[in-house]
Prior knowledge:
Elements: E1 10-14, E2 24-29, E3 33-38, E4 44-48, H1 49-55, E5 56-62
Antiparallel strand pairs: 1-2, 1-5, 2-3, 3-4
Amino acid sequence: MVPVRYEVNQIVELKKPHPCGSTQWVILRTGIDFGLRCVGCGHRVLIPRSKFERAVRRIVALQAETSAPGQ
Length: 71
């Protein structure tokens, strides 16, 4: 099985919904731990890579990065 490459600003769908009802999360940080932000309510979590990889259902999209004003 080919390992999946996860990148910052990707939107992923997890198997279990967040209490707000959303199943989509934005990846904020990768590494041994993953930093995620809920698309529905903005809640941030930090979870171990092994737990994250089991919880991912699919990669939804790559979130467009916003540039700072004046750039």
